[in-house]
Amino acid sequence: MSESTPAAEERERTPRLLVVDDDPATAQLIRGWFADSMEVLDASDGEQGLERTLESLPDLLLLDLRMPGLDGIAVAQQLKRDSRTRTIPIVVLSACRDTDSKVEAFSAGADDYITKPFEVQEVDARVRSMLRKREALLNMESAVRDLTSTNERLEQLLMVDEKTGLYNFREFQRRLKAEWSRAERYGVPLSLVFFDLDHFKQINDTLGHQAGDKILEEFALLVTGGARANDVAARYGGEEFAVILPHTELGMALRVAERIRRAVDDFTFTAGDSSTSVSVSGGVATYPGGAGVDSMDALVRAADAALYRAKDEGRNRIVVCETGAPGAVPHTPKSWRRRSPEASS
After folding, report:
1. Is the pTM of this model over 0.70?
2. Are 212 and 246 in contact (CB under 8 A)?
């Protein structure tokens, strides 16, 4: 399998040089020397040199320092400021031998400096050395891009539940902590909804786990469709899901939760070769919401207590937590919770 990195593409084509010099003899000499190994373009002044550089994006510039109009210093400065051309190596060819001219050239962005008259063999050696450095730079930039892309994919895997595409429990905790801190600091409301698919264990037992997984996927889509753009939907564990609603008071949170419940109630879920209906129960809690909801954990317990009331009251409904209600328990994913054998989902 052939390489497709930028550096590999550079190697596959003939290197392109651009000679920017008001002396046509210089361009003629360079073209004659590199005729068999490189494509040589030329420009007779600084303005034309900038235009040709942007048009052709050469691999290297051979740039005269002193030219009428726009001189080599100004050309180098402009090229190094432009994101499209700043990585193109610049080798100065100049009759100026004084230190000040060399310092000025390097300060403007020159990568090398050759004095005229020059031996063309020396120019050849320096050009090829500079092109090797450019290739190494391209390889390094490509490796950095690949590493960045890999890190982004890994970060995505750490954040997202692979079965549903929603945020996972770990990311839910991180987002809830951040939103709680913001709500506490600025005194804005924060709501939390827990959802639990009704009788989901029976679905798995009768239709199989593949059908159950498909239902989870479709339910996640309904949650995403019913939630607002700034809401944070997550799979909390098993068939339990959570939605964090920043800057949201209880009434609006209840409307969002009810919208999702109705969407589930009206939806026909895929179950293998057939279809089935599913319902969902939900519990809503809001901060500030009265006595009891004075911490992030208390908000979670309140939403959990509301969810259990929805289950106890017949399922397929949304219940608002009675703040400080007795019996609220710390909420952990059902798959991690110890429950009595007779308890059903």
Report:
1. no
2. no
SS3 69: coil
Helix residue ranges, H only, the chain: 6-12, 24-34, 46-56, 72-81, 99-108, 120-159, 169-186, 200-207, 209-226, 250-266, 296-312
| Beta-bridge partner residues of 245 | 191
Phi, psi dihedrals of residue 16, rounded to the nearest 5°: -115, 125
Is the CA virtual torsion 321, 240, 341, 265 positive or negative? positive
User: What SS3 class is residue 67?
Assistant: coil
Please work out, in degrees rounded to the nearest 5, the angle formed at the alpha carbon of residue 99 by the alpha carbons of 98 and 105.
100
What class does CATH assign to 6-151?
A: alpha beta
Query: What average pLDDT does the structure give for the chain?
Result: 86
Average pLDDT for 112-126: 91
Per-residue pLDDT, averaged over 268-282, amounts to 89
Tokens for 286, please give them.
């809001």
Query: Which residues are designated catalytic?
Result: 239
Distance CA 178, CA 172 (A): 10
Fold of the domain built from segment(s) 169-336: Alpha-Beta Plaits (3.30.70)
Amino acid at 321: C
One-letter identity of residue 29: L
Contacts 24+ apart (CB under 8 A), 297-301: 297/330, 299/180, 299/190, 299/192, 300/176, 300/192, 300/330, 300/331, 301/328, 301/329, 301/330, 301/331
Count the alpha carbons within 13 Å of 264 in the hemisphere toward its beta carbon: 29
6 cis-preceded (ω within 30 degrees of 0): no
Q: Letter for the amino acid at 24?
A: P
More confident residue, 250 or 145: 250
Q: Where are the domains of the chain?
A: 6-151, 169-336
Tell me the pLDDT band of 12, cut-offs 50, 70 and 90: low
